[in-house]
Write a structure and sequence with these properties.
The protein is of the alpha+beta class. The protein folds into two domains: 138 residues, Alpha-Beta Barrel (N-terminal domain of MutM-like DNA repair proteins), CATH 3.20.190.10; 124 residues, Helicase, Ruva Protein, domain 3 (Orthogonal Bundle), CATH 1.10.8. 26% of the residues lie in helices and 20% in strands. The chain has eight helices and ten strands. It has a four-stranded antiparallel sheet, with no helix packed on it. The protein has a four-stranded antiparallel sheet with strand order 2-3-4-8, with helices on one face. A two-stranded antiparallel ribbon has the order 9-10. A hairpin with a 2-residue loop joins β9 and β10. It starts with a helix and ends in a 16-residue tail after the last helix. Belongs to the FPG family. Its EC number is 3.2.2.23.
Amino acid sequence: MPELPEVEALAQHLRDHAVYRPVARVDVASMSVLKTFEPPASALVGRVVTGASRYGKFLSVEFHDRPGDELALITHLSRAGWLRWHATASATPPKPGRGPLALRVHLDTVGGPGFDLTEAGTQKRLAVYLVHDPQEVPGIAKLGPDALALSRDELAELLAGHTERIKTLIVDQKTIAGIGNAYSDEILHTARLSPYAVSGRLRPEQLDALYEAMRTVLTDAVERSVGQGAAELKGEKRSGLRVHARTGLPCPVCGDTVREVSFAERSFQYCPGCQTGGKPLADRRLSRLVR
């Protein structure tokens, strides 16, 4: 799933390549992807891209070329969605339901440059909104503060009193916006914190480590990602991971074996040597006992 660094890089890619270009046509290949109906997607035709922004893990393409009638095309890429930039595209409208293409935006001319929103797999969760104000998107209206905008004291205030495990809380977008499953694994590994640590019981030195890890991991990932083409971003993300999706491999820090725990529909990876004093965590699929 694209998280804060990848969405920031996609926004920068659009700022570099799409700004000042008019929309020639919008092709909707999957009606279910559109979560708003007024204004219609056709309202973008003739509008000029003026910018691109990120709200947590939401990507916004902005059309502020008509004062008082601003529009934003906002997408949440979810687990398997992606944005693909193209220099040319077929001028023939796509057939609905064929392949991964969900929505195509032609810029300058039909068949010219632009971008596609695609989604692989059978679980269709990609969401697209066309709104006048980003706060009209329910997920954006409920976002907590951005992970890279928090101070150390603000982070401490957010975590105070919470009894949730730290892994659960830092991926809750209503609490902190932008962090998903992969980067939360990396942040906790860097901070040497157990994923099962209780959020509101962290010691001051643990809060310091968590805050520094959050800033370091995300900032480094943004710096690696920005400037990469959209097609290269997934590989760039994988290359920077130390524990996430590395189950069974040696930890690059201490050499212990990276392990995995699953719960609900989510799994996460951690290093016992770095994070839990060498003790494997109980897998909730197998045991009700959680250390």
